[in-house]
Design a protein that fits this description.
alpha+beta; Immunoglobulin-like; 3 domains; Serine Threonine Protein Phosphatase 5, Tetratricopeptide repeat
Length: 423
């Protein structure tokens, strides 16, 4: 019942349909009770014929009309009672049947992780239709199609980026990975290897290219090449889950923990952080990334100690000067994106504008895809956006607020004020 009451539009539609049903039910009943008007017409006709009728015949007919009128009075009382009963019972029975055999949750269904991605996918598709040269939108399309395991569509999006911008390293690496997933084999396709080598020639410290190229070398039997690539990658990574995974792969490859660089001394800073390790360990093959459980509809912050991996509490408030622009039914997205990383969100929460101000917890459990999480990146930017259309893509008239770059490991809590109007 709470789902029904929370939707004014649904309520209005329900009332209109119930009234329409009452019209069809009550009109035949009321027409059936129109005998009183017929008796009145017969009485008037009898009075007009009074002069032409025998007095005894007139009195007999008049007596019959009075008797019928008395009987009709009792029938009218019954019809009024029936009418009142129907007027009350039809709406009550409609609501009862809907709550018992209908789907109240269908008013505002939980989209789940795939539903969130498909909603963003629809917005991006419209965007690239209007702006076919938008490289970032094409990259995001490719990432979402890949997360949904629609590899031909993902390949097409990344190839579009490479056509527009042949030097785009992000698209070349993601295309290489997409071709690997689509092949359903652990060994790198030839084109994937060529793409990765071209990226490493331009940027020897590209982390995901190092990981994928090392994976290809491992499955091709070139363990020395895999060790060189993964050791270089390990020396680029900050402490965290990703570096631990790489160390485990090196240990499995060598039979002992890898302790030193194979090609160069350790780096102290990470250049152009990327999407981290997006493929499971080689011993399990190159399988597609699994979507994690969605927590996007939570409206209250959980205890940070209960969140797995990295987490940031975000206090979201609305500038009082903009409060008059909202009705309370708008959708609010709170999300984190990597600084100098992929455009896809690392963590997302969705709530209603009626909940503002509020505090939400962004954590690794809010990631929509493996390899894209807060733990993967040293710095992120947190944003809060009020969407009038309910779409995840910003549009003119939306309201938003953003933080600067924050270090994940050093930030437990921050505040964001929604104080900008998207032009």
């Amino acid at each position: 019942m709470s789902e029904i009451l929370s939707s004014p539009l649904f309520m209005l539609g329900t009332v209109a349909l119930i009234l329409l049903a009452l019209v069809f039910v009550l009109i035949p009943v009321l027409r059936g009770g129109s005998g009183g008007s017929r008796l009145a017409r017969r009485r008037r006709a009898l009075e007009e014929l009074r002069e032409d009728l025998d007095p005894a015949d007139y009195r007999k007919r008049l007596a019959n009309l009075e008797r019928e009128k008395a009987e009709a009075g009792g029938s009218a009382m019954s019809l009024r009672g029936l009418t009142g009963l129907l007027a009350v019972s039809v709406p009550l029975l409609t609501v009862f049947l809907y709550t018992q055999v209908g789907r109240p949750d269908g008013i505002d269904p939980d989209p789940g992780p795939n539903g969130e991605l498909r909603q963003i996918l629809g917005d991006l598709t419209s965007q690239v239709r209007n702006e076919p040269e938008d490289v970032e939108a094409w990259n995001r399309l490719g990432m979402i199609w890949k997360q949904l395991q629609q590899y031909p569509a993902s390949e097409g999006a990344f190839r579009r980026v490479v056509y527009i911008d042949p030097e785009n390293q992000f698209a070349r690496v993601e295309l290489a990975e997409t071709l690997l997933y689509a092949s359903n084999r652990p060994t790198l396709p030839e084109e994937s290897g060529e793409l990765l080598e071209s990226v490493l020639a331009d940027n020897p410290d590209h982390e995901k290219a190092l990981w994928l190229a090392g994976l290809g070398a491992f499955h091709a039997g070139n363990q020395q090449r895999a060790l060189v690539l993964w050791t270089r990658l390990r020396n680029l990574l900050p402490e965290g889950n990703v570096k631990t995974q790489v160390n485990e792969q090196i240990a499995e490859l060598t039979g002992a923990p890898a302790s030193g660089p194979a090609e160069q001394p350790a780096q102290t800073a990470m250049v152009n952080p990327h999407a981290g390790i997006g493929i499971p360990p080689p011993t399990r093959g190159a399988t597609a990334p699994a979507l994690t459980e969605d927590a996007a509809d939570s409206e209250e912050a959980a205890d940070p100690e209960d969140a797995a991996g990295a987490s940031i509490q975000v206090e979201v408030t609305l500038d009082p000067a903009l409060s008059g622009r909202l009705t309370g039914s708008e959708t609010v997205f709170v999300f984190a994106r990597a600084v100098n990383g992929p455009p896809a969100p690392l963590a997302v929460k969705r709530l209603s504008a009626s909940n503002l101000p509020t505090t939400v917890l962004l954590s690794d459990s809010d990631s929509m895809a493996q390899g894209l999480s807060l733990s993967t990146f040293p710095q992120v930017q947190i944003s809060a956006r009020v969407s009038r259309s309910g779409n995840a893509i910003a549009s003119s008239g939306d309201l938003q607020g953003q933080s600067g770059a924050v270090t994940v490991n050093e930030t437990d809590r921050l505040a964001i004020v929604i104080d900008e109007v998207v032009e």
